[in-house]
Predict the structure.
Amino acid sequence: MAEKIAFLDLKKQYLSIKDEIDAAIQAVLDETTFIGGKFVQTFEKSFADYQHSLFCIGVGNGTDALEIALEALALPPHSEIIVPANSFIATSEAVTRTGHRVVFCDCGEDYLLHPETVLTKITPHTRAIILVHLYGQPCDLTAFQKLAQTYHLKLIEDCAQAHGALYAGQPVGTTGHLSTFSFYPGKNLGAYGDGGAILTQDPALAERCRMLANHGRLEKYNHQFEGRNSRLDSLQSSILTVKLKHLEKWIQRRNEIAYYYQKALQPLVEKGLIGLPSVPPTQRHAYHLFVIRTTKRDALQAYLKQHHIETGIHYPIALPDLAAYNYLSFKLHEFPNARRFAQEILSLPMGEHLTEAAAKTVIQTIFQFFAERTS
Ligand SMILES: *Cc1c(COP(=O)(O)O)cnc(C)c1O
């Protein structure tokens, strides 16, 4: 039996940096500072530097990061907040959980929000937009910054899939008033448990986020308001500090694989059998996911599985179609792209764990599938 080609291989990654990781964990055990303290501070500082950001606040996970970021903005209750119709539910969930109204907006051919479509969703009650750099591809930040300024809207960047993505040479996450990250193990920069962070360039927002995440206080027992408990702990911080040193190399490797996939799949694109997103040359996609599109998605996924190739679907149901949003009673003609793409998208194996031979096998098997179907 041929060896399985994994979608993600955290074991292989751990083994490649085992000595450093083991030492980082041991260092925390030796100090027994499990919450707060130098390991967390060191990571916050190095992540802020990597992302070219002034402030970094470590929190419990990427979902908390979104909620705390929204709370920090102190928007009037029931504000309308525009979010993409294609994302992970955390993006829209944070809006409802902080007392606001979810306004879904359809995506473009590149799976991202675009200012022209977002514009049609703006009402006098709109207060913010949450951009998602989905799959690791940056949204058009310059255009959105202009839109936000024109309509006096707050901009949040959900960067949960975009560690290492560059927009015009700059890391994403510094254009919005706040940006949020997840360190869920499978993300481009993943912890060995839950973790998240908020970035901002605004000292007042940074302080508010820190207080919201720490029971409304900056110092022990001096609670200015009610917050919550959401922490990035020392073990995760120590692990993340090690992994951050390797991130650049890993993102470059993801880009090499993506480049190979793109070139190799070109004949199928020309025949109209599969669709690939185009990435403007001024941007660096972080390739958290490499997503292709085909009307034969389910059959192709089953075929790849038969050939021991793991794939994923991100995400199989557009957010407006989730039972959680039945109460919004959407019409069938709304969100045509997000809904169609949910039927057609397929995420191929991607990550620094992939060997050249494995990437080649993925491509050959896709060609084989289409050859068998069209002959
Ligand atoms: C993973 C993810 C989140 C949530 O992060 P958690 O750490 O799992 O809470 C939010 N938004 C997007 C786009 C994500 O992919």
Q: What stands out?
A: The pocket of pyridoxal-5'-phosphate is lined by residues 61-63, 87-88, 90-91, 132, 158, 160-161, 182, 184, 194, 196 (CB under 6 Å). The two ends are 26 Å apart (CA to CA). The chain has twelve helices and twelve strands.
